[in-house]
Predict the 3D structure of the following.
Amino acid sequence: MKVKVLTQPDSYSEDNYGKKAQLTPASLSIDMTDSSFHLASPSTIDLNQQPNQQIINEILHTLTLPQKELNSKYLYDSSGLDLFYRICQLPEYYLYEQETSLLANAAQLLAGKFYSEIDLVEFGAGSAIKAQYLLDKLPRIKTYHPIDLITAQINARLETFTQRYPQLEIVPLEADITQKLKLPKLSHSIKLGLFTGSIIGNLSNSDALDFLNQVRRILGKGSYLLIGVDNKKPASILHLAYNDPNGLTQAFNLNILTHLNRLTGSDFDITQFEHYAFYNPERSRVEMHLVSRCEQVVNIDGHNIYFAEGESIHTENAYKFTKQTFSHLAAKAGWQINESWHSDNSHYSLYLLVTK
Ligand code: AVJ
């Protein structure tokens, strides 16, 4: 197996900022039906103390908008990823389980559909667990390009990949998928993109369009994109999925402030903020916020950020679709639905898009 790690300057790297992050093995293991799907051993990331001025400037800007906000990518430091993997095991967070079972069906069908060699490009690959569903069933995948903000999780699993797929070439790319991506030339005849987890739902309409256009340009005419999409459903179900009784989503949301403290040296007191997630029916999205429990001032790099009691920071959107709204979005970016899979209760869908 050949491995080449590429990085892009616009991705923030956990290796460069903040303090020491320690992942514990217990919290990292994922309970999957196939026992070989486990994340690698704990990684200790040694980080130097130097704060990043670019990140500070960005955060000072978004925290002084009339509606304060933070880019949701800051939810995903190593603790955030750990919490997110644990959220995926909760029954309330139906998205993960439903998507994996649809992926298993899709992989079966694609094995009978694709007869030539394949380049697989995964956007937001995480720890590459979802890709394994395809890699297991599609030996014609010759090169795998996992792209994520942090590729440490993928790198930690390369050993497993080598053993499992000895013929596969892996070319990880550390980059923010919403920025302009530069991939090496894709040389196999079928180009297949993979975008799971309903990550599309975290993008605004215009960012989603930009993203889908960029994927079409990168993969080219005649290419495919397998994409997971969370559907509109009763608000009570969405509410539970984003307000789990175990408090993992609350911890996940609050962790963004801990991450910022480490990245920028800010002094957020996470006990003074409250997790708040709700479905906004007008905009078809779940919104996650952190609400200030009191009037307070937070210091970031010598600047005072004022919070009124009850004022919120908007930390994430998760848009929900119908087949109609999703196919409309895809069509605007030059894609059409080629195949689709829906969970029994239609809570979640997987689409195979092809360029128009
Ligand atoms: C993986 C980013 C798509 O929006 O549902 C989980 C993240 N947020 N619980 C989502 C998340 C709250 C998740 N994404």
In short: DSSP finds eleven helices and 17 strands in the chain.
